């Protein structure tokens, strides 16, 4: 079993807000992240897949194919977008780093040929990241 | 859904690796330049990994502002710009980064908003240490 990790980057705007709460409660819980004008980050995504090395190609997964899948399923949807306003899964969930990791897992799971999705790691900034390993 | 959240903090401190259990020659032999009587220092990076169910209302494993406030009071205010050897926690143990990781794990166990998975401490860009308590981390999760 080999683990292979591919990185991708996207830059997006977002804010944290729960419509079920009053503005005061949103402000109290989310602080400056609740600014409705939004703010943004350069996100780094690390997708780790596991699998056996193909004896002929020497690959766990075709890296070009994985890059294309990440581009199609994630980067083209998230990059230079406002996550709350333009990405469907964040119409109903808060686009925290945790929820972004879960959403990317759901976008990629079962879409990578010959390999199993092992971990999604999303860096919101170098000192903050979330990991999701699927349902545990 | 359960997710892991990791947050990194930075502090600078001095220390000296030395134990009264050894004589001067043994200390010098075992700890080398880290046994310099006047001490030396590092920029430490501490990475705290917490896990828990993502709260459906907040989208969070735990509130980062609360974690940062806890870290400010219990980690940074305590260790930043100090000589580690002068602190109570290193009165009887050598201020290696292994022991520092164990002490920081003990500290963050008191942060109860999420489950503490692991403490990772980088002493330099080439040396890092992980402590997950007495449990063995799941394969591949470090």
Unreliable stretches of chain B? none
| Structural class determined from secondary elements of chain B | alpha+beta
Tell me about the largest β-sheet of chain B.
5 strands, mixed
Name the chain pair whose interface involves the most residues.
A-B, 29 and 22 residues
Lateral arrangement of strands in the main beta sheet of chain B: 3-1-2-4-5
The secondary structure category of chain A is: alpha+beta
- Work out the strand percent of chain A: 25-35%
Q: What's the count of strands of chain A?
A: 5
Order of strands across the main sheet of chain A: 3-1-2-4-5
Distance between the termini of chain A: 20 Å
- Cα(first) to Cα(last) distance of chain B is 20 Å
Gyration radius of chain B, rounded: 17 Å
Residue stretches of chain A low in confidence (pLDDT < 50, at least 5 long) are none
Radius of gyration of chain A: 16 Å
The percent range for helix content of chain A is: 25-40%
- Coarse morphology of chain A: elongated
Largest sheet of chain A: 5 strands, mixed
Q: What is the H-and-E element order of chain A?
A: EHEHEHHEE
**Number of separate helices of chain B:** 3
Classify the helix fraction of chain B into a percent range.
Answer: 25-40%
Oligomer: heterodimer
Can you walk through the features of this model?
The complex is a heterodimer of chains A (136) and B (142). Chain A has 136 residues and is of the alpha+beta class. In chain A, 29% of the residues lie in helices and 32% in strands. Chain A is built from four helices and five strands. A five-stranded mixed sheet of chain A has the order 3-1-2-4-5. In chain A, strand 4 (116-125) and strand 5 form a beta hairpin. Chain A starts with a strand and ends with a strand. With 142 residues, chain B is α+β, with helices and mostly antiparallel strands. In chain B, strand 4 and strand 5 (128-131) form a beta hairpin. Chain B is 25% helix and 30% strand. Chain B has a five-stranded mixed sheet with strand order 3-1-2-4-5. Chain B starts with a strand and ends in an 11-residue tail after the last strand.
């Amino acid at each position: 079993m080999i683990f292979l990790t591919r990185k991708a980057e996207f830059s997006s705007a977002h804010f944290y807000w729960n419509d079920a709460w009053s503005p005061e409660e949103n402000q109290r819980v989310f602080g400056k992240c609740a600014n409705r004008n939004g703010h943004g980050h350069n996100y780094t995504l690390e997708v780790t897949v596991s699998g056996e090395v193909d004896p002929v190609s020497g690959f766990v997964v075709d890296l070009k194919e994985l890059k294309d899948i990440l581009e199609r399923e994630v980067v083209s949807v998230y990059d230079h977008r406002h996550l709350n306003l333009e990405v469907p899964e964040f119409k109903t969930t808060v686009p925290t780093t945790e929820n972004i990791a879960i959403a990317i897992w759901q976008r990629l799971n079962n879409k990578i040929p010959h390999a199993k999705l092992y971990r999604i790691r999303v860096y919101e900034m170098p000192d903050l990241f979330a990991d999701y390993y699927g349902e545990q | 859904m359960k997710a892991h959240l990791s947050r990194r903090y930075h502090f600078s401190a001095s220390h000296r690796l030395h134990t009264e259990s050894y004589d001067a020659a043994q200390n010098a032999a075992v700890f080398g330049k880290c046994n310099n009587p006047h001490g030396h220092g590092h920029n430490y990076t501490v990475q705290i990994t917490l896990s828990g169910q993502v709260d459906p209302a907040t989208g969070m494993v735990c509130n980062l502002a609360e974690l940062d406030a806890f870290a400010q009071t219990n980690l940074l205010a305590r260790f930043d710009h100090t000589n580690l050897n002068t602190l109570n926690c290193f009165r009887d143990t050598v201020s290696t980064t292994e022991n520092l990781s164990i002490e920081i794990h003990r500290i963050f166990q008191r942060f109860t908003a999420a489950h503490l998975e692991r403490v990772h401490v980088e002493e330099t860009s080439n040396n890092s240490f992980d402590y997950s308590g007495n449990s063995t981390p799941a394969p591949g999760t470090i």
